[in-house]
């Protein structure tokens, strides 16, 4: 074991020597949205990974709107892709937001400024969400926003009431979880920093990973309890249940900092990082194994699946496979040479990176856009009539809707990103 180094006295320097990681890069980020906190490295392959995730979520809702979700292999794949993409987004958030805290501790620096952290988070999520929420409430008139519950939607608390959890922008329930995580993270970092870590890298890893293991087990226990209907599904889809995935990302953050300090300590990381295809093969295997474990009674989506009672053994198997899928999917984006391997070349491709840059706005727009394009009658989700595209399509309807919705959503998301998000992101500092 090597001693934990003293702080690096170079203003603006990264948090240590070149790591065994694909992420840290000296290249300028393609967007202020993707710039890390000052003095911290960037993990550019997450850009393309975000692009893949929003494609999976779009596919889920396209199959849902066309009533093909869960039907046949393609429908089952879209179902798994949709809820698993949400889980991976949580893992990415846990990793990227917690890593500066671990790095500061490892290099003997003070924790990141709470004021700067809060400012960066607010500028990242508030302008885009409030703008898209308001525009969609005006047209096509999504339900609930301009009502007495307006404060729930604008305040990220719609998840905690059964009458509002899937109204407004339905997919924004995940933002409710993210916001509570943003609030809890600095408190967690302060508490964990008081756990003695000794003077070597191994001590730091133990001090970080043991509490995170407890958080992962606690989140899994909440989801198991919800599956047996011992606790409310609202508890399971809140931070109390979803903390398992956020903590998994935080654990990766601790490991990446440890490997950066002592590359010999975790030799298996080096070996696995050199085989990104094997990582993704394991992720694909977990994806396939998950397909028969989902409820087969027309219940779709992460919230609906958690709401539906299942046996403890099935739920546990599902949680393990979800964790394996997420872990092996993100592994090549964190560790290893970012130029090596087909998965990394795919993640670095321009189309996926571009989609990743606008992924936040894309996520906010995509469901309502998909519904508007497909439906010709008034929807329960909004007041205006749709375009009725599917009335004129009789073959390959999911494929056609996916292509049209992808283009339309990308156009809107690009406009929102450039006109709304970007001006605020440039002020993150």
What would you say this structure looks like, in words?
- There is one protein chain.
- This protein is mainly α and 429 residues long.
- The protein contains 16 helices and no strands.
- It has helices spanning 45-65, 72-106, 114-138, 150-154, 173-193, 201-227, 233-237, 239-261, 267-273, 276-290, 302-307, 312-334, 342-347, 350-357, 359-374, 397-425.
- The longest helix has 35 residues, at 72-106.
What coarse outline follows from CA principal-axis ratios?
Answer: globular
Spatial gap, N to C terminus: 36 Å
Structural class: mainly alpha
Tally of separate domains: 1
Query: Strand share of the residues?
Result: under 5%
- Helix amount: 55-70%
- SSE succession: HHHHHHHHHHHHHHHH
How many beta strands in the DSSP annotation? 0
Compute the number of helices: 16
Taking all Cα atoms into account, the compactness measure Rg is: 21 Å
Largest sheet: none
Oligomer: single chain
Any low-confidence stretches, pLDDT <50, length ≥5? 1-21
Q: What average pLDDT do the residues reach?
A: 89
Keywords:
429 residues; globular
Q: In a nutshell, what does this entry contain?
A:
The chain is mainly alpha-helical and about 425 residues long. The protein has helices at about 45-65, 70-105, 115-140, 150-155, 175-195, 200-225, 235, 240-260, 265-275, 275-290, 300-305, 310-335, 340-345, 350-355, 360-375, 395-425.
């Amino acid at each position: 074991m090597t001693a934990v180094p003293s702080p690096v006295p170079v203003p603006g320097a990264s948090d240590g020597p070149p790591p065994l990681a694909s992420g840290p890069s000296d290249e300028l980020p393609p967007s202020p949205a993707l710039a890390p906190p000052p003095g911290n490295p960037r993990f550019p392959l997450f850009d393309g990974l975000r692009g893949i995730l929003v494609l999976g979520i779009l596919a889920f809702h396209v199959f849902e709107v066309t009533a093909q979700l869960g039907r046949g292999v393609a429908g089952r794949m879209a179902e798994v892709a949709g809820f698993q993409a949400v889980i991976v987004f949580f893992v990415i958030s846990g990793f990227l937001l917690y890593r500066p805290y671990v790095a500061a501790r490892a290099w003997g620096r003070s924790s990141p400024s709470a004021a700067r952290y809060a400012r960066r988070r607010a500028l990242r999520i508030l302008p885009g969400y409030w703008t898209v929420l308001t525009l969609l409430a005006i047209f096509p008139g999504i339900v609930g926003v301009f009502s007495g519950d307006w404060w729930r939607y604008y305040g990220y608390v719609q998840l905690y009431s059964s009458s509002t959890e899937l109204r407004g922008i339905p997919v924004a329930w995940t933002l409710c979880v993210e916001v509570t995580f943003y609030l809890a993270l600095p408190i967690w970092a302060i508490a964990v920093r008081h756990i003695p870590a000794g003077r070597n890298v191994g001590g730091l890893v133990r001090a970080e990973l043991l509490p995170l293991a407890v958080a992962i087990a606690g989140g899994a226990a909440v989801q198991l309890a919800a599956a047996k209907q011992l606790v409310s599904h609202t508890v399971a889809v809140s931070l109390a249940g979803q903390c398992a995935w956020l903590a998994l990302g935080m654990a990766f953050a601790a490991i990446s900092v440890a490997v950066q300090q002592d590359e010999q300590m975790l030799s298996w990381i080096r070996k696995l990082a050199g085989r990104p295809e094997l990582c993704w093969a394991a992720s694909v295997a977990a994806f396939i194994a998950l397909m028969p474990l989902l409820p087969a009674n027309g219940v779709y989506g992460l919230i609906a699946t958690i709401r539906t009672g299942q046996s403890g053994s099935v739920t546990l198997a599902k949680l393990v496979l979800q964790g394996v899928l997420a872990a092996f999917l993100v592994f090549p984006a964190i560790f290893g040479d970012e130029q090596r391997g087909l998965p990394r070349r795919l993640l670095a491709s321009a189309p996926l990176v571009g989609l990743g840059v606008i992924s936040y706005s894309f996520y906010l727009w995509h469901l309502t856009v998909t519904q508007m394009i497909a439906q010709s009658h008034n929807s329960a989700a909004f007041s205006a009539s749709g375009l009725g595209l599917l009335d004129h399509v009789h073959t390959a309807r999911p494929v056609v809707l996916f292509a049209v919705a992808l283009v339309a959503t990308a156009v809107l998301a690009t406009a929102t990103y450039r006109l709304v998000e970007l001006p605020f992101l440039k002020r993150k500092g």
